[in-house]
Structure formats: structure tokens, C-alpha cells
# Entry
Amino acid sequence: MLKQYFIELLEKDKREDGRKPFEYRDVSVETGVIARANGSARVKIGNTEVLVGVKLDVGTPFPDGPESGILMVNAELLPLANPNFEFGPPSKDSVELSRVIDRGIRECHAIDLDKLCIKAKEKVWMVFVDIYPINDDGNLLDAGALGAIAALKTTVLPKYDEKEEKVIHKELTKTKLPLVHSPVMTTFGKIGNNKFADSTMREEKAIETRLSIVTTEDGNVSAMQKGGAGMFTADDVIELIEKSAELGKKLRKLVPSK
Amino acid sequence: MGGVGGPEKLIVNGKRLDGRKLNEMREMEIKVGVIPNADGSAMVTLGETKVICAVYGPKEVLPRRNLDSEKAFLNCVYGMASFSTSERNRPGPSRRSTEISKVIADALAPAIFMEKYAGLEITVIMEIINANAGTRTAAINAASVALADAGIEMRDLVCSVASGKADGQLMLDLFEPEDNFGEVDMPLAILPNTKQITLLQMDGMLTKAEAKKLIEMSMKACEQIYELQKKALKEKYGSEKESE
# Structure
């Protein structure tokens, strides 16, 4: 029923909230919203609201990257944001959400992790990005990814006491996290043969499938993920890559530079 | 991708480290009906990668909270045996396997007449016995044949391959060194008769033109895989009238 309704609207190039198929809702990005975090952002896409906080710590590097810092992305889908979320171990959706956002940052080497080495094989900076949806009205993927990049952009390192070999969390330095790219994720839904950007919660209930595409400043693709039990053609994918680069450019401009 | 300690080059004299050409797939072997207890089963070997898959169902949904009165509950579980990787893999679900199980279910569901099994469960268990890259795609190839073996009504089989980029070159069916030290990995699955994409993941860095070429390259390979899947099913069920 809902699906048929959306198909009829989309075939007339319309959405129920008056948007065009490839138009985002109002997007706002604020940074520096959490005093205790090393970097933070609040992203709103329509009624969807996501808080992202970055915390830094020092730990042992992985054996396959003895001189590289560590990036960890996690999403906490609390029932606060959506009554269908459940307490307890992370659901498949939350694992997918955090892993897709993680790869969007990691695979284009957005953070220069090699600059986060303190002592090879022993001590490196660990960057924890935690995504907390506050209100879920669809498209948590794009909101979370945009929030993560905005928060990382504002992240400063805490002081590291070399003698004691520990972090002094309360003392912040002026050193910023070495961020070299701003990847932006855009997620598209498909109902029938109709494709569109930035689904609301009601649209997410009706879509057959979605495709998330991450693009960098130069319009290249750095990550993709199809979700949902539906299908895309090769032409769909190429078309959406173009749309993603275009929309990504606009979204990237909303990220404050500090 | 891009770890340390990899080989200096992944392409030497135009050939890959295992001697393959850029658009050459590893040898694939498919066996149907390898687990007598299962309603359907299959084993797929792709070079050194080996996966065994069992399908149970349609059956009662347990626990009941997973019940969907409009369509089947497709319960896909991808796992890696502890001895399947160079360093021992701790058995049990991980974040990686949870995500892979989800994308595999999303890749298989479009092939199944899900509404015919409303209120029932179809369980697909895929265990990687030996891993040398391409495990999720091998698992999809095995699962789709095992579902057919179980007599689940399907629109089509699902064919899957991972291609990518290493040493600046696009290539088909990555094996471990290319997966670990190459630039791009892109697993893809299609329904071979309609060419609809049911699995697509990508990480690395590609231009739009490269993405297009890589999709085409993988789709072509999926046609080969489709022939192997049909052949394997015919081996078990005897060749009936050839449609070609």
C-alpha cells in the first residue's frame, strides 16, 4: 500500500514531503557540540538527528600495521532514537551501519594513520568514532557518515606524557588529527524502477533496496554497499555514481572547516 | 587493503602471481548434495577457497519473533572455520561475519519466491573451510545451488565473483595477496538471466569509468559461473532436455 503510494508519487517526480527524487531534506552540520569529546558533530537531515563524538586514546598497534594509528567506528542504535531498536548486543543493522561508515573513511585514507604513530610496534593513537542516532527518521547512514567526517575534522589530540607513557585526557594540544580527504556518503533508495536520494523512515519501510556510495573531492568512488533484498542494474549503478558525486559536493560544503 | 609486508609487485610480466591473466578466474568446482542431512547442500571450490553450504527448510520459524507473515524468513549464516585462515580464526560470529551474513541474505532473497514461503524459515548455513579471498562470493555461489537442491522455488540462480584493482590494473577474481595488498575489492552478484545486481560492495578508489568496466568484467565471469552451477545441478539430477 505504502509502496504503491510512493511509486505513484515518484513516477510524477514527486515525494510525499514535496521534494524532488534527488533532493535532500534540509541538512545542518554543527561541530564542537560535546565539550568532553576530542571532536564532535551534530548532523540533522530533516527530522533525523545524529550525534558523533571522537575520543582518542593510545594503544598497541595491530601486527599488520606496526606504525599506523587505529580507527574504530561504532554505532550505538539506542531505543532512544527509534522504538524498534533494541538494547543488547549490536544488531545486524548497527554492525552494517558502522562498518559501511568505517570503510567510507578508511578506504580512501581520509585520516593519515601513519602520522599517528608514537612508538613503532608499541604505541599509536587510536581514534574512536562513536555514532549515536538521537532521532531516526531515515537515512542514518548518510547522517552518520557526514557527522563522522565533520567530527574528525575538528578533532584535536590530547596531551601525551612521554615519560609516564600515558594520555592526559584533560589537556588538549593544538595538534589536529591529520585529515587528508573528506569522503561523503550518499544513499539511494529504489522502489519499482524509481530511484531517489535521502529516504525518510516511511520511505525506508517501502524501499526494496538501497545503494550507498562514497565519493571523494575529485568525484571518484571510494566505497559502495548495496543493502536490502532488491536489485539494481549496471546502468542504475553508473547513474547513481554520477548523482553521488554531484550531491556529495553539496553536502561536503556544509561541513565546517574547523 | 594496503597492509605492510606484501609482495613488491602483484603483476609480473603481465601475469598475476599465480600465473593468471587479468581477466582470468581461478578454477571453480561445484558439487551438489554433499550433506545427506540437509534438504539441499553444495560445496564450491575456487582455487584454494573452499566453502560448504547446507540449506534446511522451508520449516517452522524459531524463535517465533523472526516470523514474517508476508514472506519467508531467510536466515543466512556465514562463518569461517577456525582453521580456515593463516592465523587461527576464533569460531563464532564476528562483526565481519554478521555483516557478510546480512549482505548474502540480501543477495539471495531476490532470487527466491519469498512470498510462497510466508510464515516459514529457510536456513542457509555457509562455512568457509579454507579461505583464500573471495569467500563471500563463493558462499553465494554455493548457497544458490544448495537452495535449488533443496527444491526452493526460485526465479534464477545467483552468481557471484569479486574483482578489483591491484598494481593499477583492473582484474577478475582476486586471490589473497591481491585482496590484501591491492587497491580495490568489489564483490558483486547477479541474477544471470536478467543481469540484475543483488550484491554490490566496493572499497578502494575507482573512477566512474573503472567502476563501469569492473562491473562488466564481473558480469561476464558470472555467466561462466552460471554454466558451472547448471552443470553441477545436472550432474546430480541427470540431464533432462537441453533447452539450448
In short: The helical segments of chain A are 2-11, 92-106, 140-153, 201-206, 234-253. The mean pLDDT of chain A is 94. Chain A has five helices and twelve strands. Chain A touches chain B through 40 residues (CB under 8 Å).
